[in-house]
Amino acid sequence: MNLKVNLAGVKLNNPVMTASGTFGSGIEYSDYVDLNRLGAVVTKGVANIPWEGNATPRIAETYGGMLNAVGLQNPGIDVFVERDLPFLKKYDTKVIVNVCGKSTSDYVEVVERLADEAVDMLEINISCPNVKEGGIAFGQNPKSVEDITRAVKKVAKQPIIMKLSPNVTDITETAKAAEAGGADVLSLINTITGMKIDVNRRNFVLANKTGGLSGPAIKPIAVRMVYQVANAVNLPIIGMGGIMNVEDALEFLMAGATAVSVGTANFVNPLATIEIVQGLEEYFKKNNIEDIYSLIGCVK
User: Fold this and answer.
1) Tens of pLDDT along 168-204?
2) What DSSP string describes 5-73?
3) How many CA atoms does the CB half-sphere of 227 hold within 13 Å?
4) What is the pTM of this model?
5) Residue 287: which residues within 8 A CB-CB, separation 6 or more?
6) N or C: which end of the chain has fewer CB within 10 A?
């Protein structure tokens, strides 16, 4: 059976990867997960300088998922290159670095810094607030999406994945904008903005008031958006949003995703990614499927 997939010339041994922000940089899960078995490890967001993140409390459990307002806390590109990259390169898996920033120049600086490093792809998190545009996320305005995509493509040596925000009226518009800007791959969806209130304290549960909703609760929305985007652009898609098991992963593949990212499930079950890889192998054997590409986008 063939589980290998191709993302803009980068060949993965299987379509299962980790979702940024849920797996650290791989070190944190390496005692539980054989990283060699994953198609790729997607790191937590990396910025040009260290970010402290938001005030606590910044994580809350919800029905069918969780809210997070961590604020992309990270040690910055220097620590990442010196500490995390050498560790990841010991494994037979692709390395995808998630890049975050507060201005176009922030993104460009990180992308330039990683140009000659042993990194296979870059995932650009455009759900970050654009400080020069009043805090509106890059990913909520099609023109901003096209502009930031073009800016990072100009300096990147690796294929670029643009990670789309679902907090828009029509996600196909931002997908088309990313394609116009030169994106090589799209990943979707990022978290959906939500809120939780403690009725006993009569106050917000999160210090940030709002946070990103992830987990099983958002999966039907994510599958719908992946299907829409797959039928609107000619780019490979990494699907994510509430994938907990192999059946969930198969839904995304059948909707048009070439690969899948597993996020919140890692907190509930550290072995989730490996179980999904094994589940795909079992599904292929049971149904006499020889090539994963016969499944990708099979639902029209």
Assistant:
1) 999 999 999 999 999 999 999 999 999 999 999 999 9
2) EEETTEEESSSEEEPTTSSTTSGGGTTTS-GGGSSEEEPPPB-SS-B--PPSP-EEEETTEEEE-----
3) 14
4) 0.97
5) none
6) C
